[in-house]
Amino acid sequence: MEYTISISAQPERAVKDTKSIPFGQQPTEHMFVSEYRDGRWQNSRIVPFADLTMSPIALCLHYGQTVFEGMKAFAMNDGHINIFRPEKHYQRFNKSLERMCMPQVPKSLFMEALHQLVQLDGSWVPTEMDGSLYIRPFMIATESRLGVKISDEYLFMIVCTPAYQYYAKPLKVKVEDKYVRAADGGTGFAKCGGNYGGSFYPTQLAREAGYDQVLWTDSKTHEFFEESGTMNIMFCIDGKLITPPLSGSILDGVTRDSLLTLAKEKGIATEERPVRYKEIIEALESGKRVEAFGAGTAAVIAPIEVIAAAGKEYTCYIGEDALMYQLQKDLLNIRKGIAPDTHNWNYII
Ligand code: COI
Asked: For tag attachment on the chain, is the N or C end more exposed, with fewer CB atoms within 10 Å?
């Protein structure tokens, strides 16, 4: 890979206390940029974080040809920096790009850019147990024309921001039985911008009704759970970890996959199967202990305290001994280098 690195004039960390800043509002000092033109990636570089200049008729601004990823780096207990499962994120990025007719990113370009950028801005990686560096690779279509077409030009970029707890408290969620996030054959499995923009309106309605997020159901019957907000949905009932199976309308979550793997290793039964929402409501009505949580890179585990369905509210278990917290701790211990990384998930810089 060929690129030049230009380094910010102020290598010192500019912001000392990033914990008080809301998620995603404080970029680190540098960003990675690469341009796709004439069928190849070129002019790859790491530069000081700055605004972009682009044509008002750049295709991404009109037709939504955009894809992003979200991954995290952790400060390990021995002082090293660890990027968690970058290869799995890389594979998902390229799958999303394929669905959106955007060019693949070579693995060497992706990994080298990631490595160099995180190394350069390493002093921004929070060292606290609840802190991490959120890494946002993304691609946008930059060809300048209004005709509806697949762009011939793109920018691939990576930016980073220190991150702490995504949600301050357990969530109240509403089962969504009118609007849909994704349908079979659509783009639900891809991390493309439109999936998020399209979810704002139903989420806004849920907020106005007093809820934090929606619990999406399938587009055909509204009987089966799909995801919650921007996360995969998981339940612990009768000692089992249950989650909807991957499909064309569900994101292949890296946290979801990691938690399923860790649960199996702990001897916890796992079920990846369609989850009828009435099954969960019945379990709650029968007085069973039901844990419900969202799993995602930004949120890690977001406990759900209240599920609202058909005008009624149900309370899920969020006690300290909940299985979800044990899995969260197991995951964090691997990321921080406290527990052995038997799956080679850690990419240590
Ligand atoms: C993530 O968890 O990485 C996400 O993409 C969710 C959100 C920050 C958009």
From this structure: N
